[in-house]
Design brief:
The protein is an alpha/beta fold. It is built from 8 helices and 10 strands. The chain has a single domain, classed as Alpha/Beta hydrolase fold, catalytic domain (Rossmann fold, 3-Layer(aba) Sandwich), CATH 3.40.50. Strands 1-2-4-3-5-6-9-10 form an 8-stranded mixed β-sheet, with helices on both faces. Strands 7-8 form a two-stranded antiparallel sheet. α2 crosses α3 and α4 crosses α6. The two termini are 28 Å apart. The model has no long low-confidence stretch (mean pLDDT 95).
Length: 259
């Protein structure tokens, strides 16, 4: 199924008066859980992984939702004025308002942090997790990596800019974002999630170390957690072979009898 014809995106109103842009396909099979995709930092719902997963789920007759967190893509608000708590609130609202029944949450990079927060916030709705280079608690690592000049700029200006090969413009990190992120850390204690979990990570990832997926696996209380390390995979994990790994994870988590 070609999903390019789904534009323009629909809009979900937020309590603050803004809106969340999203695409949704209703599934035809009641025996399959829905799937929600959460994008990464400064990314959006129209990336390769999100659109390919949308096509895959539509072909399977499986409910699917992808959306832009506020300050990203087609959603309202300016990125510099948003925080992790805002994005977590968006994810929770999407799951509550746009989905029904059990859901598998797929989180890419920063979306992997929101994936875990969603599982903790909605334990009766989220039954499975698929992390793709998941990056929970990245604000702590960022704080630790600040140079003296960056720390001074953060205090003085309230933000810093860092170049990234994953965006055409430097990433902007505000002090509000970093401070708020540190209030939402999930790896400092066991993660009270009992659902099935698959964590995909490229061993050539130069943005998020693959060892972080091992730490996530250790912290999640569920006994059904697998880490899939892709030796020649980078941070994006958007090659055809990587996409197939993601699809396979959805198949596994959708079938309660799959081993």
């Amino acid at each position: 199924m070609n999903i390019t014809g789904l534009t323009p995106a629909a809009q979900l109103s937020r309590p603050d008066g803004g809106y969340i842009a999203y695409h949704r396909t209703r599934g035809k099979r009641d025996d399959l859980p829905g799937v929600v995709f959460i994008h990464g930092l400064r990314s959006d719902m129209d990336g390769e992984k999100a659109t390919r997963l949308h096509e895959f789920c539509a072909e399977r007759g499986q409910d699917f939702v992808r959306f832009d967190c506020r300050g990203h893509g087609q959603s309202s608000s300016k990125f510099e004025e948003t925080t992790l708590s805002d994005w977590a609130s968006d994810a929770k609202l999407v799951i509550e308002q746009l989905t029904q029944g059990p859901q598998i949450i797929v989180g890419s990079s920063m979306g992997g942090w929101l994936m875990l927060l969603s599982a903790l916030a909605l334990p009766n709705r989220v039954i499975g997790l698929v992390g793709i280079a998941a990056a929970p608690d990245f604000t702590q690592s960022l704080y630790k990596s600040l140079s003296k000049e960056e720390a001074e700029a953060l205090t003085r200006d309230g933000l810093i800019r860092r170049p990234s090969e994953y965006a055409s413009e430097p990433y902007v990190f505000t002090k509000a974002l970093l401070d708020d992120g540190n209030k939402n850390v999930v790896l400092e204690k066991p993660i009270a999630f009992q659902g099935r979990t698959r964590l995909l990570h490229g061993m050539l990832d130069d943005a998020v170390p693959w060892e972080l997926s091992l730490e996530i696996a250790e912290k999640i209380e569920s006994e059904d957690v697998k880490v899939i390390l892709i030796k020649d995979g980078d941070h994006r994990l958007s090659r055809e072979s990587d996409i197939r790994q993601m699809h396979q994870a959805i198949i596994e988590l959708s079938d309660p009898n799959h081993k």
